[in-house]
Amino acid sequence: MGKKHAAYIQGLKELGCRPGELWQLRWVDVDFGSRTCNITPEKESRARQLRISAKLIGMLNTLSKKEAFVSVGDLDVFAKWFYLKRKKIAGLAKQSQDQEDWLQDF
Higher-confidence residue: 67 or 105? Predict the structure, then answer.
């Protein structure tokens, strides 16, 4: 997973906003000094300002700021990639649990 994807997932975890709202976050919406970001609503909710952790600020500081948006690319492509990775990890966890169950039965 790349740095941008890691920062995006951390942002979803911390901020609790909609995936599309975070995907549309621009660098001008992030205030590194006060550790806040301005979220533009995707649906009919209100715009809001949210606090960002030092961890997420650190992750954002490692990213290139050449583009206007923090996340670049197609959200649908990323969502499909994430779904497949999550499914693969869940399958590995189940396989590991099955092996543990087999060893306990032995």
Answer: 67
The pTM (predicted TM-score) of the whole model is 0.73
1-72: which CATH topology? Answer: hpI Integrase; Chain A (1.10.443)
Tokens encoding 104? 């306990």
- How far apart are alpha carbons 75 and 103 in whole angstroms? 42
Check: CB of residue 34 under 8 Å from CB of residue 52: no
Strand intervals (E) in the chain: 30-31, 36-39, 48-51
The DSSP secondary-structure symbol of 69 reads B
Could you report the per-residue pLDDT of 23-79, keeping only the tens digit for each? 999 999 999 999 999 999 988 888 999 999 999 999 999 999 999 999 878 888 888
**Could you give the CA distance from residue 49 to residue 41 in angstroms, rounded to a whole number?**
11
Question: In the chain, where are the structural domains located?
Answer: 1-72, 74-106
